[in-house]
User: Fold these one by one.
Assistant:
Number 1:
Amino acid sequence: MLNKVLLWVILIAPWFTLFLMKKENIKRFMPAAFSASYLMIIYNVVAYNQNHWAINETIIPWLKPLFVSGVFGAFPVIALWVFYFTYGKFWKYITTNIIIDFMFAVFPLHYLFQDVLNIYELVTITPWKRFLLFVSFSLIIYVYYRWQETMFHSKQNEKTLG
């Protein structure tokens, strides 16, 4: 029961933190959050099929290949906040992501979810490999968002000039 409550909190609570952010910033960085979520959905499906982990506890059973609480809750909101505080300062962005990815993939959250609460169990991937995957995802998300923002601004400039 505690696990289910925790998973629901991880899914819902992060979204309430967006009340602390200006609407313009949410609009600006939401594409980064959505792309981060999309990338994690793909990773979760591949990881499930590659037997990277076994999910022992889920809140939405028909989405069992996904770690729903993370993919639709904490992960996109954290990505949004990281972009808000670090976008345009690449080294600050990557350092922040390395710290957060370590906390999720290695310690303390991985330890809590696997060893203490038994929410999931890594099977064919190590915490360190997962950490490297998460860091590479953060690089992909940054490059994608940078490209998207460049495209958006160039189209805006064309409209004002044309």
Number 2:
Amino acid sequence: MRQTVGALVFLGVGAIAAGVIAFSKGLPALRLTVFELPYWKSVEAVVLKTEVVAGDASGLSTPGSRASGAGRTVYKPRVSYRYLWEGREYTGNRFSLLESSSDDEMAQRIRLQRYAVGKAVTVYVNPADPSQAVINRDDLFNPALVSGIGGLFVLVGAGLLVTLVVVVRRGAKDTTGSAE
């Protein structure tokens, strides 16, 4: 019984910790998606450079990355672009709200094919801070998914711990009641 209780406590606390981490990773992008991004203005930009950047998976804790652990290589898309906002020129390189990586280099290269150097593309600029811009705002589902999964983990972990407390208390009452 003690081992079972210990395992459930470990699982409950672990689920809560994992949920808090996932929720906190997705929350800033979710806030940006819901409260700010709808007010960002679309402007035309010119692609300056596209590349797929390789990195070690241990240094990346990005949603969408299937790779984990040192020694595994993951790939991220990177697009640099130039745009004008109210007569001033800016350079940006933010591709999407949440950085994503993959262990499939070819998939990232295919993803970047539509962003040829010199091509005109639409970027979304934050009017409150025009140095902030993003090309791809189509993946708005990702922040909600990351935050939602985090919230689900927190609820499951809390549910495990509450269930554990109820079961242990009932077991203690049953033991006390049968001893009388």
Number 3:
Amino acid sequence: MQLDRHPVIAEPVSPLNLANLFTFSRILLAAPVAVLFLSEYWVAGLILSWVAGLTDFFDGLVARALNQESRLGALLDPIADKILIGVIVVCLLLRNVLPIWFVAVVVARDVMIMAGSMALLRREVHPHSASYLSKFNTCFLGLALTVAILGRAQVGWFWTAATPYFLIVAAALTVASGAHYIYVGLKLYRHQDQ
């Protein structure tokens, strides 16, 4: 994670743009994803989850290509990610797909990041971009959840057998990513006091 004391953009950009539309769609898709998983339509829920996840790629791509990077987009993008991931892991917990310890790790990290980001924003320290560790963690978390869902859907013995190992690695990456956020956040917080 890299943070900057300067605004994300130099000039105002309308919040009503295509990039932010992708971000809003990710938030809206969390509801049907929840319905599908709670109804145990595993494959349909998985497909829609990946469609929602892909909007995270397209909103950034469109924002850079069309110069639509806005303050609203920078704030909503991580919130949309955490809403989608939070909805998925909680629904999978309720359907006994994920263990409670795993969900606690994922949710605790996201709550900690949001709380830290709010504290930094109050000091006019604005998020700039996610670290490579955070991006890798998000990708591997998506992979681990996919494996767990396919295991629950009983599409093959491999997915069921592999699920615990993927969850352990994903949890370790989540903790490491969270620790990195804390380190960088505290460093910036203290630096501003000097």
